[in-house]
Each structure stands twice: as C-alpha cells, then as structure tokens.
Amino acid sequence: MRRLLTSTLAAFVLTLVSAGCGPADDDEPAAAFDIDGTEAIMTGVIGPTTPDVVRALIDDHPDVTTIVLVDVPGSIDDVSNLEAAREIRDAGLATHVPADGEIASGGVDFFLAGDPRSYDPGAAFGVHSWATGDGTEGADVPRDDPEHDLFLDYYAEIGVDDDFYWFTLDAAPAEAIHIMTPAELDRFAFATE
C-alpha cells in the first residue's frame, strides 16, 4: 500500500510543481461519492466542482452520516477544497479513512473537517508544504505573512491546532510527501472518537 501511495503521489506531485497550485492533474478523476447505506465512499481529486458535488450529496442523501475517504490524493484548488470541507463540517458529517485508504495533501484537510473523525490502523495520510508558481515554499514564507491565513483560519474554525499547519510545511517540500506516523496522527488528534 505504501508503495502505491508513494508512486501515486510522485506522479501528481510533479504536476504540483509545474502548476504551482495543487497535487493533481487533469487526468486524475474528480472527487466523487458512491453511496452505501449511511456512508458516502469518496475517491478522486478535489477541485472546483467539489463544493457543488458535496452540497448535492448532503441534499440528496440525508441518511448519509459518514464520508469514507478511500483514495483522495489531494486537491487542485485550495479554496474549493476548504469550501467543500466546511460544507461537510456544517452538515455534521463524520469522516473515516479505512485501513486501505490513502489520502494526501488537500484530502487530509478535507478529512479534518469531519465531526467526529476516525481511521483504521494502516490508513495512510500524506502531507507536504504548498508552493507558489515561482517555487516559493510555504515553509519559507514568514509566519506572520497573510499568505498562511487561508489554512490557519480554516484550522481554527474546525478546532485543529495550528501546530499541525506548521508541521505540514516542514514535513516535506511541495515536490515530496511525508506519510504521517501513528505517533504524529496521535499528536495532532486525527481521531476524535
């Protein structure tokens, strides 16, 4: 599983570097949900259409209580990602990553919106720094720069310690990925139940 995640992430991290905006390319399938009883199984890349897809999910499937993130390699639009995540949070939906689940980058931010949130041993969470089109890494931007506010405001809204944000910037550069250890998942309270 780790090899699959690493090779998958390597492919779309190259797009991140060239596009300067997100960890996926146009060839990646867009985020979608398959309904299974009270669960919505999520796969694909989060992008500009995702907030509308999430709103339709909430409106059309009121019995869904949990988003199960199976293969969510990231996002190509941070603003849309956080908008969709806020919809999940506002609806009071839980998030879960199964043992064979692999999520990264914006997929991790989306997962963190769950209330409550959980994961099975073996679930893979990949994090890294963001970068601008000119190659400036998030870790190189002064901490008091407003460039960080998009994520810091989001984490404050959902009750995630901003230490996690700074951790992601230092964990790996934008062109790489860091798979969080069980101790790191505990440290940042990824499971809330």
Give an account of the 3D structure:
The protein has 193 residues and is of the alpha/beta class. It has seven helices and eight strands. It has helices at 2-19, 50-60, 78-90, 106-111, 149-158, 162-171, 182-187, and strands spanning 32-36, 39-43, 66-72, 94-97, 102-104, 117-119, 124-127, 178-179. Strands 1, 2, 3, 4, 5, 6, 7 and 8 form an eight-stranded mixed beta sheet that branches. Helix 3 (78-90) runs parallel beside helix 5 (149-158).
Shape: globular
C-alpha Rg (nearest Å): 15 Å
Query: Structural class of the secondary structure composition?
Result: alpha/beta
The largest sheet is: 8 strands, mixed
Oligomer status: single chain
Distance between the termini: 25 Å
What is the N-to-C order of secondary-structure elements (H for helix, E for strand)?
HEEHEHEEHEEHHEH
Q: Roughly what is the average pLDDT, rounded to an integer?
A: 89
Helix content: 25-40%
- Count, helices: 7
Number of strands: 8
Indicate the low-confidence ranges by residue numbers.
1-24
Strand content of the residues, in percent? 15-25%
Can you lay out the helices and strands and say which pair or pack?
Layout: H1 2-19, E1 32-36, E2 39-43, H2 50-60, E3 66-72, H3 78-90, E4 94-97, E5 102-104, H4 106-111, E6 117-119, E7 124-127, H5 149-158, H6 162-171, E8 178-179, H7 182-187
Parallel strand pairs: 2-3, 3-4, 3-5, 4-6, 5-7
Antiparallel strand pairs: 1-2, 7-8
